[in-house]
Design a protein that fits this description.
about 130 residues, mainly alpha, about 75% helix, about 0% strand
């Protein structure tokens, strides 16, 4: 069973740093080069921290075989953060549309499915109780 409290606390910490930093950044700086890159970094933290407890709950509610480790949940949250960053980057260039967002989401989902399939195929011998 996944430990929910450490993942929840990590998500809360990331979300507070991300959203607080974004509010501070947007209200106090001009969109020059360094604040723009800081915006994407803080947006990654905010999106990853916000979605981390949700993903932990979904993995606990719908377990898989083998069960997802905490590293898998963190990786999925980071992928969501990167996806949000890509969407905001494309929106700044005014090239984002629903079809492109859907194709990008499908690509991120395929990447995660392939990574989970790779993890499933690695040989991990089970320890025997009587030996």
């Amino acid at each position: 069973m996944l430990p929910f409290l450490p993942i929840f606390l990590l998500g809360l910490l990331l979300a507070l740093i991300g959203w607080g930093g974004l509010v501070l950044l947007v209200l106090t700086t001009l969109p020059t080069m360094i604040p723009r890159w800081l915006f994407f970094f803080l947006l990654t933290l905010a999106a990853s921290g916000t979605v981390l407890p949700v993903l932990a709950f979904l993995h606990r509610r719908f377990p898989s075989e083998p069960p997802a480790e905490p590293g898998v949940i963190v990786r999925e949250a980071i992928l969501v953060g990167i996806f949000v960053d890509i969407l905001s980057w494309l929106q700044l260039g005014k090239v984002l549309n629903p079809a492109l967002a859907g194709f990008l989401a499908a690509g991120v989902i395929v990447i995660e499915i392939l990574l989970r399939m790779y993890e499933r195929t690695r040989f991990k011998p089970k320890e025997h109780l009587n030996e």
